[in-house]
Amino acid sequence: FSTLQANSVLKNLRVEDVLIVGRENVGSLVGGAFDARVENVTVVRATVRGETFVGGLIGVCDRCEVSNVRA
C-alpha cells in the first residue's frame, strides 16, 4: 500500500515473498502511515530497498499504532 491516512486500519493480513523497491517512504506493508493502525499482520520473506524513510514493515510511521506484527 502507498499510504494509510488518518483513522485507517490495516489488519489481519499475511504477506509472503515481497520485493519492494522505491526511493522514499518504502515498506513491505505500507510506505507511510499517518495517524493510522496496523495490527495482526505477518510478513514472511520480504526484501525492501529505498533511499529515504525505508522500513521492513512501514517506511514512515507518524502517530501510528503497531500491534501484534511479525516479520
Would you mind describing this structure in some detail?
The structure is a single chain. The strands form 3 sheets. Strands 1-4-7 form a 3-stranded parallel β-sheet, with no helix packed on it. It has a 3-stranded parallel β-sheet with strand order 2-5-8, with no helix packed on it. The protein has strands at residues 3-4, 9-21, 24-27, 30-34, 37-49, 52-55, 58-62, 65-70. The protein is an all-beta fold and 71 residues long. The mean pLDDT is 95.
Summarize the helices and strands and which ones pair or pack.
Layout: E1 3-4, E2 9-21, E3 24-27, E4 30-34, E5 37-49, E6 52-55, E7 58-62, E8 65-70
Parallel strand pairs: 1-4, 2-5, 3-6, 4-7, 5-8
Outline of the structure:
The chain is mostly beta strands and 71 residues long. 0% of the residues lie in helices and 73% in strands. It is globular.
